[in-house]
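Is this the right way to post structure tokens for a design question? Let me know if I should format differently. Anyway, here goes:
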């Protein structure tokens, strides 16, 4: 599983970094960044899906 953030959709509410601080951070403008390059460890898959489900802008893209 890989995770991306659609920078054009992200509005920076940071729900993702609250739900999954191991995966998401923020840039200087408050928009989400992905902290893990490449495949996510299996133990973080559920957190990634939870963050995606809770993103109010539908800005989190998960590639299986
Ligand atoms: S929850 Fe969604 S809109 Fe908010 S910072 Fe994270 S990716 Fe961006």
């Amino acid at each position: 599983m890989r995770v991306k953030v659609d920078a054009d959709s992200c509005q920076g509410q940071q729900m993702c970094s609250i739900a999954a601080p191991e995966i998401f951070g923020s840039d200087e403008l408050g928009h989400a960044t992905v902290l893990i390059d490449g495949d996510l460890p299996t133990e973080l898959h559920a957190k990634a899906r939870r963050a995606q489900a809770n993103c109010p802008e539908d800005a989190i893209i998960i590639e299986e």
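Format looks fine. Someone answered above. Worth noting: Residues 45-54 form the longest helix (10 residues). The domain at 2-63 is CATH 3.30.70.20 (Alpha-Beta Plaits).
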